[in-house]
Amino acid sequence: MEKDDLTHFNEEKRAKMVDVTSKSETKRRAIARATIHMNEETLARIHAGKMAKGDVLAVAQVAGIMAAKKTSELIPMCHPIMTTKADISFEDDGETALTITSEVVTVGKTGVEMEALTAVTIAALTIYDMCKAMDKGMKIEKTYLVEKTGGKSGTFKAEA
């Protein structure tokens, strides 16, 4: 396929869902990451479990997993995918940045990059929602695909 030969358009140059009927089912995995920056006090209160709306990371984790499962309902040309694994993890720098990582796996005819990206985005938005009363200046930044494996195009790893 030529780089400019986009498969998301029909003969009338209108959007369509790509035909994956003839593709083989393979194991596909994607990892995505997003970072949310906040005040030190906000991050400390998240870790102390002292946010008014409850356990921020537990709620964000569930929100991210649910988002991965609902991606085809949010992104118009995404295929519904039978997700076989969705996990969310958190790592912070001990000061003001909280990094969210998702891993999504399936065995199917199309990849799970959009599911992994949607998972970290919704987890970050959930953190924002749960903490906005004390820190409206939070910034969600650097959302990206870290790695994907499987499928016709093979492995992709983001440059460090």
Automatic annotation (TrEMBL):
Keywords: Lyase, Molybdenum cofactor biosynthesis. One of its GO terms (biological process) is Mo-molybdopterin cofactor biosynthetic process. Substrate binds at M77, C78, H79, M114, E115. Residues 17-151 form the Molybdopterin cofactor biosynthesis C (MoaC) domain. It holds the Pfam family MoaC. It catalyses: (8S)-3',8-cyclo-7,8-dihydroguanosine 5'-triphosphate = cyclic pyranopterin phosphate + diphosphate. The active site is at D129. One of its GO terms (molecular function) is cyclic pyranopterin monophosphate synthase activity. It comes from the Bacteria. It is an enzyme of class 4 (lyase). Its EC number is 4.6.1.17. Pathway: Cofactor biosynthesis; molybdopterin biosynthesis. Homohexamer; trimer of dimers. Catalyzes the conversion of (8S)-3',8-cyclo-7,8-dihydroguanosine 5'-triphosphate to cyclic pyranopterin monophosphate (cPMP). NCBIfam families: moaC (TIGR00581), PRK09364.1 (NF006870). Belongs to the MoaC family. This is Cyclic pyranopterin monophosphate synthase. It comes from Listeria swaminathanii.
